[in-house]
Amino acid sequence: MVEMSSLTIAFILTVLGIFSAALAASHYNCDGPLVSNLLHAAFESSSQSSANNAPHFAKLNRRDGAGGWSPQATDRQPWIQLDLRNRMEVTAIATQGRYGSSDWVSGYLLLFSDTGRAWKQYRQEDGVGRFAGNVNADGVVLQKLSHSIRSRFLRFVPLDWNPSGWVGLRVEVYGCAYKSYVADFDGRSSLLYRFNQKSMSTVKDVISLRFKSRQAEGVLLHGEGQRGDYITLELHRGRLALYLNLGESNTGAGCGRVAVTLGSLLDDQHWHSVLIERFNKQVNFTVDSHTEHFRTKGEGDSLEVDYELSFGGIPLPGKPGTFLRKNFHGCIENLYYNGINVIDLAKRRKPQIYSVGNVTFSCSEPQLVSTTFLSSSSSFLSLRAMASSLGGFAVRFQFRTWNPDGLLLSTRLALEPQRLELVWQMLSYINILLLCVPIGCPSSSPADTGCENPTLAFQGCMRLISVNSQPVDLNLVRQGRLGNYRELQFNTCGIHDRCLPNFCEHGGQCSQSWSTFYCDCSGTGYNGATCHNSIYEVSCEAYRLAGSSSGYFSIDPDGSGPLGPTKVYCNMTEDKVWTVVTHNSTDPIRVQGSTLQKPYIMKFNYSASPEQLIALVAGSEQCQQEIVYSCRKSRLFNTWDGSPLSWWVDQAGERRTYWGGFLPGVQQCSCSLEENCIDMNYFCNCDADTDSWANDTGVLSYKEHLPVSEIVIGDTNRTFSEALYRIGPLRCYGDKSTWNAASFYQESSYLHFPTLQTELSADLSFYFKTSAPSGVFLENLGLKDFIRVELSSPSVVTFSFDVGNGPVILAVKSHVPLNDRQWHYVRAERSVKEASLQVDQLPLRFLEAPSDGHLRLRLNSQLFVGGTAARQRGFLGCIRTLTINGVTVNLEERAKMTPGVSPGCPGHCSSSSSLCHNRGRCVEKNSGYVCDCSQSAYSGPSCKEGAESSVTYTFQEPFSVMQNRSSQASSVYRESSRARENMAFSFMTTQSPAMLLTVSTFSQQYIAVILARNELPSWETVIILCSFWITGGENFDEEVMQAGSKGFIGCLSSVQFNHVAPLKAALLNRGSSLVSVRGHLEESNCGLLADSTTSHPLSAFFSVLLSSMSDQAAKADKKKEKHDNDTRHDSAVIGAVIAAVVLVLLCLAVVVIRYMYRYKGTYHTNEAKGTEFAETADAALRGDPALQDAMDESKKEYFI
């Protein structure tokens, strides 16, 4: 019997389900014709060209009269309107031209109204208000509405028509009857829905209603409970705010209170729909077609409301949590609370409903007529001021706009004293600029009218205009019987909120004007018109390719995707570039006293979010994480049954019991893999359970399980039992997307992928190389929309698409062919604001999107890469690193199963000359390349890093000079310092300024050779024979100091100073007290480039960054000695200075001559006589007898 009852109930539920589905289907079967049976009186128009072109002839497929409606040729704003007699639900419209004529409408607007006076423009799903019309007189164009209209009056406003004819129109409207339960609230009334019990506690709520308001403030719904629960739906400044709290007794600010705001301009006296769906803490809040999903705060999952729910206002102050607000003033219809029709109960005077104040059940319609000023340059309304019986001059009006400035009013006052009264109401967010009737200004008005337009004309809406207490009938203005106007739209407010929905991504702030919107991307980590593009690279590998060295970087693993940037450390000192992500517990931690019942648990919080970590690990070639684990009488596994006593948790929250780098799922440690456990009866050292410390340290390298999110230790509760552990940072290397490539060998081949999901914004980037003159890189098609990127000619890349506004083509032309078998970079972006195309470093091409055009790119076919669905114009060559909206497309995987396409792309090195720098050698790898820097003066992954090093040589001065600080010793040294100094070396660098060589004395004299200008990275040989020293006093020359601070990076060889070879001494006499080396010094052969005739050289590889001259000055300052100020000493100093000045002038002349011929550097030196006629610097060096002996010993040295 019970079984039969269950089957019966199941059958009944099934039948009810089918019946409900049938009812739902019949409800949505709303496509019946609504115009064909209308009477003639239901049609109205702005004008008609003749009786046979009257509006009632505008029925679809009818040939009565002249075959349709046509307005007068002088009609400035033609329209035709339909009265459906009752509010109907309209789901589609159709248009047709005038029968047998050349008159048809090619574009139009659709307006709707409940009263036939206040109109609202219908906008499609993406905000487009314009409908495409006909292309001939007899074809029918059907437009299905993205959301239905519930209204009585419809108006068609032609925008464009056949240029060879005139406006001609026949129409049909499809829909069904609309049932409505309406209540009218006067701002002091409300409806109370009372529960059958003291309180109502619900875990699920569904509340729906439609409203239209006469004011920008008002409470539509309120309920509260004793424990602090409340729900409030409130209209505030024309937007709808939902306040919801569950089980939080403290209702103060910031304590459980949640406010979510949706909608805009909701006080426009037109209907708006609201839907609130709650299940536990999860809430869906929908206003019109915009939905916000959020999770409410509070301690509970249920909403507990005491006694009643109030609709239309809060009648009395209540319990804590009651917020006193204005009551709602307007109409509410079809109000349902959890399936209960509240207005129907109120209308039938059911006891559950209590009415407060005057609530009526028909919607009163205010007679408010708005006018839209369409143009910021030419719109105006000119009215004649009527005399006031009270004297003076008074103007009143209401307005709303998005523009920050505009001329509202201008008039010339009489010379005698006048009273000017201006009253305005700010109906929406606006900055007001009021300049002292025409409203707006005719651009062609003569100067004597007194109308000046020092700012932009007003662009927005106005209503309730009165001059000297006399209301202005705008219908008379429209009919030409009152005043004058230009670029106005009557009986409607055409303002549109362009920040709803908010197209600014990644938290960008939206602002707007009348015609467009703007995104403020400050602080988001993104840029672009809609904050779509990340300003950070996607990986450490990308930073390396950009030439960066090790350090902390912000990376954005999914590029322009929803995940934000995170900071990581990029270690680029090895061939592999490591990405290091730290967590909150990197120090060793000792654990004692834990059991399996009460284990020790540590959760790790990383510097990146779990979603960012997943993206980082997925995009890396390999990841690893070290676990340092030491133990004493603490086991990892139970020795009896093998059950784990300690474990770690992976990124997905799964328990893992393998330790070290062993295979997942195997309860073993690294020592078992390496076969070196201390007791071979166990798979882990700790399981030997000895009294001495053991170690089971290992590296986890199964990246799908990384990073470690938690560690649990459960066997440290015995005597002398303890564990010591440390979890290292997550370390990953490689970027799987960087060299993910495919090679296309046949023009008919392509790769196909799922349809692009890029309705509102799309960015795609890739590298290509080819020898073909043209080919399609990628293409995705829809019914009408499409997107395509192609090489249209050897030097032109084009990006084309269509979102419904007509095809858009952007092209970038290169001055050199792009089919040169070198890698070239392409990035194309399309958003609701603009489109752009970037090729290599060529100038960016971009195009703004139309402000009122279609926004969504609707595609339905597969994405084709390397070709098209028609197998024509296919691409021949290589494509790599294809990324779409931050997601890398796996070309290699798809290429493995596609004929005519192979995974990978050979020739990474041969196709680009900029991968390895400074004579570094590019070495091919299976998926990329590495740089061999052994033949370069530089190091690092790209051979761009120099070592911070220097060599200092201390001269052996006479003992008397070093010890005796008398004037005699000083004079001896001054005599020796005036001897000729010979220096020679060769160098190669791309840096300037740079310090090449400096020699200094204890008395602050110095010789400095600096490079002040450098043009080409070629070897230069310098021979200097100088017979003077520069006295620097307390400081070195400013130019020398600047060069010293920069140091030197490059190759420096053949270093010779008089009889001393400093570099040779540094290499052959390691540990000598005369030589101090800062940094790393090693041998190399890069100096061979300096002298091709040199054989068997002694070479040294050394990237030099000389210490700053300030350090040298500090050392010299320590050696400085004060001397007697006697007359002979002063005379000697003056003589030395005069001699030095003369020699400096001679040296400057030589430097100028050298600069004119060599353009390579500036030297504080003077060349010796007899060398100026040498053909080369080396020849001059060899021709100088004073340097022959020195060069024989030191010519083959290289100081780098």
From TrEMBL:
Concerning SMART domains, the annotation shows:
4.1m (SM00294), EGF (SM00181), FA58C (SM00231), LamG (SM00282)
The signal sequence is: 1-24
Residue intervals of the F5/8 type C domain: 30-176
Positions of the Laminin G domain: 182-363, 740-905
In its UniProt record, which GO terms are filed under biological process?
A: cell adhesion
Q: Please report the record's description of how this protein sits within the membrane.
A: Single-pass type I membrane protein
Q: Name one Pfam family in it.
A: Laminin_G_2
Query: Which part of the chain is the Fibrinogen C-terminal domain?
Result: 531-583
Cystine links in this protein are 878-905
Transmembrane regions: 1132-1153
Matching entries from PANTHER family are given as: CONTACTIN-ASSOCIATED PROTEIN-LIKE 5 ISOFORM X1 (PTHR15036:SF84), PIKACHURIN-LIKE PROTEIN (PTHR15036)
Name recorded for this polypeptide: Contactin associated protein-like 5a
